[in-house]
Structures are given as structure tokens and as C-alpha cells.
Amino acid sequence: MSIQTTLNKTRTADYDRTNDLKAFDERKTGVKGLIDEGSKNIPNIFVRPLEDRSKDLGTCPKNLSVPIIDLAHVHNHTNEATTTEVAKSIVSASGKWGFFQVVNHGISVELLERMIEGGRSFHEQDDVNKKLFYSRDKSKIVTFNSNYDFYKSNAANWRDSLSVNTVFTGEVYPHELPPVCKDVIVEYIDHVIKLGDLILMLLSIGLGLKPDYLKQMESTKAWNFVCHYYPMCPEPELTLGTSKHADASFITILLQDQIGGLQVLHENQWVNVEPVKGALIVNIGDALQIVSNDKLKSVYHRVIAKSIGPRISIAFFLKGLFSSPKLYGPIKELLSKENPALYREFTLEEFLTHFITRPLDQPGIDHFKL
């Protein structure tokens, strides 16, 4: 039986999922490889179980959306009152939604567009060049694959990803990056780290802490840059681009193109995060929910599959250094008799290991509750 026949066979009682996963993985061409070959149906490994699809929550009307926050007047820090007001808005959005979009954030639209195109260039280059980076070794800094939890999930997601992960090393050298998009990645990361520092400063102020408090927690010492590529899907109703999950980060900064597909779970319904030209999406991760003792919320989100594409998104996760001996837990300044600690302390090694050893769509924050 050919690999393609194995991938496309109808699910039966003796369906060998493990064999099909291995067959797909050995190709090293990802989901895009299936589309390039003209697949009209999605392989069984991508089909969500019927019980999952039947329990899916509805999507709310378009008149509900995550907050949009203007950062135009906080870059120079000259107007303390304005900065404080913006900080309060960010904390409010982070508590109610866990998500917000920022505009006038200091990164040019031109650079954002070049970053999108850089990501597209990587995923659409010749397979022989992409295969050089194909790996599931999580200790490698630069990897290309499809679904980091490929062998753990109930259904694979319809996406390919390029990842640059400094969580284990704290740094990456330009020569390690894919040549086709190396320069724009280096430039973009330099800018997005500065934006991350600004967001953390505003969150600190909004929580009533010193402006540099969250940065001093070393949350920006290491990060993971991931460029997702979501090809058009011939059967989008059967799969997802990314399963429901919460991020194992302090904060995540996301750049998405104009196709859209990101959804946030809010009040038990899915809300579309509509693309706003020039905007970046920021969401709270599990680590920040814990250290804020639930003042800030890390919420479920997902990406739906679409019959149009490809969709490109660039996620930048501020995670901290895996090997740090520092203990993390609820910030003592935020605790009181009325607001006791809800979580125990942990190292980032324990925290991140717990995340990568479970399926993406399973909750992780409860593991650290007292």
C-alpha cells in the first residue's frame, strides 16, 4: 500500500493511526505537501472525532470583539496620566478577555508585511530546503514540522510551523536561521522584544506594581518565535487549524494576515478576532495568570480551518529561560487575607515540561493550583 493510500484510507475498525502518523511524518513536506499533490480530502489523521465536533460551541455575532488599545502616547512615557490610563485598559482587557489588539505600537506596517512575506517564503520554498529543518527534537533551536504534539493529539491540526526556540539556550545566531527569511526574522524579533517590554511595563503599572516588576521576573530572557502556515483546506468542517488551547507563556504577541481564523473563547462562545491592518494581538499566557493570582486571564483560543488560504500567522511567546533556578508563583504584593495564593511555586523547567508533554488541547494550569 502506498503512503498516499495509507494517508487517505477511510477510517475503519482496524484503522492504524500510528502507522498513518509515521507515514505522514516521514514525508517531511507537511500539510502543504498534501495540497501540492492535489489532495481533495483530508487524511484521517486530521479528522476530529465526531464526538468533539458534535460538542463544538457556537460562534458569536460579529458585533462582539476583543478590545483594541492605542499605544500611540505611551512610547515616550512623557504623559504619566495617559500611560496609567492605558495600563488600566490593558489590565481590564486582560482580566475580562485575556486578549487585546494593539495599534500604534511602534512597529511599522511595512515590517509587519515583510515578516508575513518572509514566513510565506519559507513555507513555499522548495521542499529540499525545508526538509533541512524538519525535526521533532525539542532541544533544537530552529525546526520545521507539522504539529508539535503530533503523536499525542486525538486529531492533527491543519498547519505547518517554523519554530525558533531560545527557551533552552537563551539565544540564537543569525546563521542558524533559514536563509530565505533570516534578515526579516532578526529585524522583527528586535522590534517585538521591545514591544514585549512595553506591554509588561504597562501590565505592571496596571497591577499597581513598579513599572519594571514583570520584566525583572526574567520573562523576556528567552522566547519562542513560531511562523504558522495554514494551507487552504478541502474539508474545513472536519478539522481545525489549531486546537483549543491556552499558551504556556507570560505573554504572546501575534501577527496575523488579513485572512483571519483566530477565535477566542469568551462567555462560553467563540469570538472571531477580526484582522485589523497594522495591529498586533496580545494575549495572556498561563504563567502570567498564575503570577497575577488570576487577576489576568489566560483563555482558550483556537484557529479554524478555511477553504481559502494559505493563512500566515507569526506568534512570539515570551517564556523565560528553561534552566532558570528562579521560583515562580503568585506575586506577594498582590496577595492579602481576602486574596490568598491560588497556586504553588514552580520552576520554569517544571512548568514548560508539563506543557510539552501533554496534548495541546488539555488544560495545564490546574496542575499548579494549591
From TrEMBL:
InterPro entries recorded: DIOX_N (IPR026992), IPNS-like_FE2OG_OXY (IPR044861), IPNS-like_sf (IPR027443), Oxoglu/Fe-dep_dioxygenase_dom (IPR005123)
Looking up Pfam families in the UniProt record yields: 2OG-FeII_Oxy (PF03171), DIOX_N (PF14226)
Show the GO MF annotations. Answer: dioxygenase activity; metal ion binding
Does the entry feature the keyword Thylakoid, yes or no?
A: no
Alphabetical keyword list: Iron, Metal-binding, Oxidoreductase
Mark the transmembrane ranges: none
Tell me where on the tree of life, at the top rank, the source sits: Eukaryota
Record domain Fe2OG dioxygenase: where:
220-320
SUPFAM superfamilies in alphabetical order: Clavaminate synthase-like (SSF51197)
Family as reported in the entry's similarity comment: Belongs to the iron/ascorbate-dependent oxidoreductase family.
* Name this protein carries in UniProt: 1-aminocyclopropane-1-carboxylate oxidase homolog 1
Q: Which species is this UniProt entry from? A: Spinacia oleracea
What lineage does UniProt assign to this protein's organism?
Eukaryota, Viridiplantae, Streptophyta, Embryophyta, Tracheophyta
